[in-house]
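Annotated sample (chain length 179).
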Amino acid sequence: MAITRMRPKRMAKAGVRPARPVNAERRNERPCVADVMTRDPICIETGATLRQVAELLDTNEISGLPVVDDQLRLVGVVSRTDLLRRLIEGPAEARHDEQWLDLLTADSTSNLEVDAAKLGLVDDVMTAEPVTALAGETLAKVARRMADEKVHRIVVVDPKTLRPIGIVTTLDLLRVFPR
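Output written by the structure step:
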């Protein structure tokens, strides 16, 4: 079978629109992390209480935070899921009859008085060695890494200092890929 090219007049008669010429500069550009990341992410330092984590997540209406050390270098990530898991399971030294989940329900009949410090610190629930990206990486590469690692956010770090400079979430990627 021979392949023929339609000339513009024949294409118009056939109802086919000719493809627009691709700008040579734009053809080689691929969207990168820097194009979609939220810059200067809100972070929390190691040693923070889980109450502080919850307040920061709630106040800023976000679902996760990079955790940094005293030098502001990335050491982990904490999410709402991590907090929920801690409330369901309780701290490692908790008695099995303690109802930590009662803390979540407003109409609970439990008289559970819990010292917030008993729940632990961010260090106890964070994911250490978080998945990271560099600002110049392509979104396709980062999206594959997120899927492979089963994470919903990737912290963008400065390669020299390992300080968080941005964050990319699955929602950020969804805003780009349907186009």
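Annotation: The longest strand covers residues 74-79.
Annotation: The domain at 30-176 is CATH 3.10.580.10 (CBS-domain).
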